Amino acid sequence: MRKRSQSSLVRRCRYGAALLLVSTIAAWGQARQMLRGHVPLPVRGLTSVDRLPGSQRLTLAIGLPWRNPDALSLLLAQLYDPTSPNYRQFLTPAQFAERFAPSEADYNAVIEFVSARGLQVTGLHPNRLLLDVTGSVADIENTFHVTLRVYPHPAEARTFFAPDAEPSLDLAVAVSAISGLDNYHLPRPMNLKPRGQGRSAGVPNTGSGPYGNYMGNDFRVAYVPGVALTGSGQAVGLLEFDGYFTNDIAAYEQQAGLPNVTVTNVLIDDFSGDPGSNDDEVSLDIEMVVSMAPGISKILVYEANTNNSGNDILNRMATDNAAKQLSASWTFPTDANTDPIFKEFAAQGQSYFNASGDSDAYTGEIPTPAADTNITIVGGTTLTTSGPGGSWVSERVWNWGAGTGSGGGVSTNYTIPSWQRGLNMVTNQGSTTQRNIPDVALTADNVWVIYNNGEAGSFGGTSCAAPLWAAFTALVNEQALANGKPIVGFVNPAIYTLGKQASYSICFHDIITGNNTNSSSSNKFMAVPGYDLCTGWGTPNGINLIDALGTPDELQITPFFGFSASGPSGGPFSLTSETFILTNLGKTNITWVLTNTASWLSASPREGILEAGGPVETVNISLNGASTNLAEGLYAATVLFTNLHNRTAQTREFSLQVFQSIVENGGFETGTFEDWTYTRAVPSSLVSTNPLYAHSGKFGAALTSAGSLGFISQNLRTVAGQPYYLSLWLDSPDGLLTNEFRVSWNSRTIFDQTNLAAIGWTYLPFVVLAEGTNTSLEFGFRDDHSYLGLDDISVSVVPLPTVQDVTVGPGTVTLTWDSLAGLRYKVEYRPNIQQTNWLALGSNITATGFTASVTDRTRFQAHRFYRVVLLP
What we know:
Blueprint: E1 6-7, E2 33-34, E3 50-51, E4 57-63, H1 69-79, H2 93-100, H3 104-115, E5 120-124, E6 130-136, H4 137-144, E7 148-152, E8 159-163, E9 168-169, E10 177-179, E11 188-189, E12 193-196, H5 218-223, E13 235-240, H6 246-256, E14 263-267, H7 279-292, E15 298-303, H8 310-320, E16 325-328, E17 330-331, H9 338-348, E18 351-355, E19 359-361, E20 376-385, E21 392-397, E22 399-401, E23 404-415, E24 434-437, E25 440-443, E26 447-451, E27 455-460, H10 462-482, H11 492-499, H12 504-507, E28 508-509, E29 539-540, H13 542-550, E30 555-558, E31 564-568, E32 577-584, E33 590-596, E34 601-604, E35 607-610, E36 617-623, E37 633-643, E38 648-659, E39 677-679, E40 686-688, E41 700-717, E42 723-731, E43 739-745, E44 748-754, E45 762-769, E46 774-797, E47 803-809, E48 812-818, E49 824-830, E50 839-840, E51 845-846, E52 851-856, E53 865-870
Helix pairs in contact: 6-7, 7-10, 8-9, 10-13
């Protein structure tokens, strides 16, 4: 028999005149504070059609900011940093409140402030983040100095109310936001789409449910095959804005052959729990959790149905801390009160998943809260299995067309979080400065649902995927606790770290087929290898991802990237070595080995044993003597660090660009200024074997000139119109003033800096263009009290682009060629080899590294011929 219970959100209380006996009127009898973000943007262009009646009553939630926000940010960074002693040492709600909750004095001051103005306090929250109040429109308008007007909704067939100005309070205690002053945005499912009972052409029908839909154990066989974990000991919390029929859940469990799972309703803001028009969403969420985690100890359904209840639901989830896995398949109003709750989730180790939405690619604002940087956003796929109850075969991006598919895009409001930085956003068309979504995905198509008191049908939507991910995380946490490890908490830092490692391909199904384009976005976004804005990193690949998240590799290696070096044939090169720190984060010894197949790289040591709790190991990877014998070209290498305890491997990538210099005696290895022309004070300068003056080799130049610039120059034989790569090493050993260093190319100054600080040997690269067959290279220098060091000057031809890789996908061709940072390239094509004119493929591309790439997404011809052109 299923156990069900109900509870209310907060302690209900009444405050009368007696409360004012302990009044702290001084706290709210202060200068007026102005709030922001309460007037919906469309209001500016709308004409009010009415005013809310003064007698109408509204329910509000007043939010206070956390104390010590900087300390909270630092704590969150430590909780998700595997090298920190605080890694995954999550707080309890009581500990969190003690460190970060608003003070009791401030909370009481707000209570007294609203009570004195005729508003009734209806709910207190243990973390003192929110205060629930109700009152008449007239009292609310007087309290917050606004007029609540009625406007025609610009996109929906209804009116909405909103303040005509930003609210203000005669209160000294800081207030973050007042939830409920408008109903412009109403909670709704993320466009959950029913297909009915029938099937559509081209849709896989390999599920075990009616009409080939997926239900019950299908999800486990596809995504966690052979895994015995069932979610035992874990609870999942679901955010809902409607009720459901309990008999629908029982019918689903019976039809799918699943056990009866305990479902507990937590009713918020006086919601009755009665099912309404969106009960299909609620039933779906519950049924997905039971399917993926049939042994889950409890499902907590947090339910409300008022416009401003989203924050109340979220905050109850946080202060209860009864479920470590949380899911929402809705979009709902958010404000400055919302993100602080998501941060409390992260601090307490609660994993929150939100559906990315079902409108394909976003070209503007993303529905809230699906772009927040403290939660995990889940996209959708179309799954194909080997048959009913069969194994995973393939997946593609879920996209039904006509603007219905996996939501993804670039946030206009949130900057890119730290864990999302460092990704190549060229082929996926993502942003390097703004938050990109989704983070991950799961199946969102052909899902059988029983709902509405006995109805059933096939549904699609990322609403299916979010609760499946929450249930999958319950399996992760079950295993972590069984192995004596802490739970995973906010999964994004760990997921993005995995995505950048060699183990990514065994932890995720990388979705590389399909797109989420629509009529508003015809070329964004496409599925590509690795992270993309259709399905994020992809879908879980069974026990491999469970192990990686719940019991992460205890071999920690920093930094996470190898080096990219460049220089003339024979050297020297811009970088020569990098040091990696290996740390054992576990409780048992780790044996590790390093694999390097590049003849021009050396690594030492190449193997070792890291003792549990013992010292770190330092590994140096450097260019060796063979690098000076390399011909011109681009060289790449991958070094593997393998943990022999669990057989996992981590990679570090290295590259070396070798040029042929046209400068004579650029390293002054003749021991003189031979091949250089000098003027003014150069006779007092010298070329010396003193190691203080040399960057590499035996010799280097020490340049002195007091009071005015001295010069050395050399005429170079060049090709008109040819770009060249100019590089040098400069040293200002002591930073004594006055000093100056200038670089001129063909009498044009390209670098000039005065009063250099003590910088040590510094690499300066430039891309320059030859205008004729003879080009002058000149260096000006001045140092009144000391000298400037100059060495290893190189000028080499920028290589013409050579295509290194061609990747053909469904309707796409991706070209990758060698490049140099700062150079501009143009990709052109023609449909047949006889055609004389070439057509531009998109805009010009400015390279940011040693390789550049472009994807052709509009292949209308059967054949296309491509070329990459280096621009002047």
